[in-house]
Amino acid sequence: MKDGTVLDHASRNFLVLRQDWTFEYALREIRQQQVPGPILYFYVTDDSGKLVGVLPTRALLVAPLDAQLKDHMVKRVLSLPQHMAMSEASEFFVLHRFLALPIVDKDKHVVGVIDVNAFTDEVLDVAERRNFDTVFEAIGLRVGQAKDASPVRAFRLRFPWLIATICGGTVCALLAGVYGATLEKSIVLAFFLTLVLGLGESVAAQSMTLAVQLLRTDKPTLRWFASRGGRELATALLLGLVCGATVGLIAGVWQGFTLAPLAIGASIAVSIVCAALLGLGVPTVLHALKLDPRVAAGPITLAMTDLATLAIYFNAGMLLLG
């Protein structure tokens, strides 16, 4: 890994454009400056020199010559502070997959540009390490802390997160006992119990992983949560309807088209929606409480998803089957 800050490895040969320039004037300036090296993006500033947007090269080719840059630039631009370490910057390239990023000072003035070629090996290394770590963080374990720990320390690191699973499993067992009469009336419900739980956990894990990735860079607000929640809800509804209909059809073909397949399919649809919202909500709440959602979210989300899924499943069976 290269040492130093991003500014130490940045290129100073860059050209910034003014947002009130026309494309005709901007093209003239670009030709006159003749900036060396591959030009990936053009960065746009306001009158004070503050970074306000990014202009993809394609926009220069297709936009009207008399149009102003501010009408075609991308206003949401990601930048790196000039004192950021190279190791941190490599994670930004992995996460956002940009080819280059501007470097700014405390006043948001562009002071350099760094591209992915500055640390290609580091980016690949971070990507591989993150994929490896994410698997273990989802079940409540940091590989970096546990790989060289003594047995006693490893136990102290790992056991607390298993408590959520133990508590959740115990409550699930109690729920199954409460709804024992419902299971006795329709044994087909018991046949699909594992499948229903597996679907809920899978969707919750998917939503949780996405939420944890977003929370690395996004600041969660009510508007952010409403926006992400709306998207996740729409996706979960589609997943729930398709999965519920598929499993319900399988149950109907196997056991006959009675109310039991309807109960199974309907409960799957509802539980998948609930699982998706828990997968998004739990990491967001943990982040708001200043807890690490990457480690804490996994066991808590899956335990809560199991409880919600069983409650929905058994109640659907009781309501439809008596």
Summarize the structure.
The chain is built from 12 helices and 6 strands. The chain has 322 residues and is mostly helical.
How would you describe this protein?
The protein has 322 residues and is mainly alpha-helical. It folds into two domains: 6-119, CBS-domain (Roll), CATH 3.10.580.10; 160-321, Tetracycline Repressor, domain 2 (Orthogonal Bundle), CATH 1.10.357.20. It contains twelve helices and six strands. The strands form two sheets. A three-stranded mixed sheet has the order 1-2-3.
**Stretches with pLDDT under 50, minimum 5 residues:** 122-146
Can you give the mean pLDDT? 78
Strand order of the largest sheet: 1-2-3
Under CATH, the topology of the largest domain is which? Tetracycline Repressor, domain 2
β-sheet strand percentage: 5-15%
**What is the percent of helical residues?**
55-70%
Distance between the termini: 64 Å
Biggest sheet layout: 3 strands, mixed
CATH-defined superfamily of the largest domain? SLC41 divalent cation transporters, integral membrane domain
**Outline type:** elongated
Note the total helix count: 12
CATH architecture of the largest domain: Orthogonal Bundle
Radius of gyration: 26 Å
Encode the helix/strand succession as letters: EHEEHEHEEHHHHHHHHH
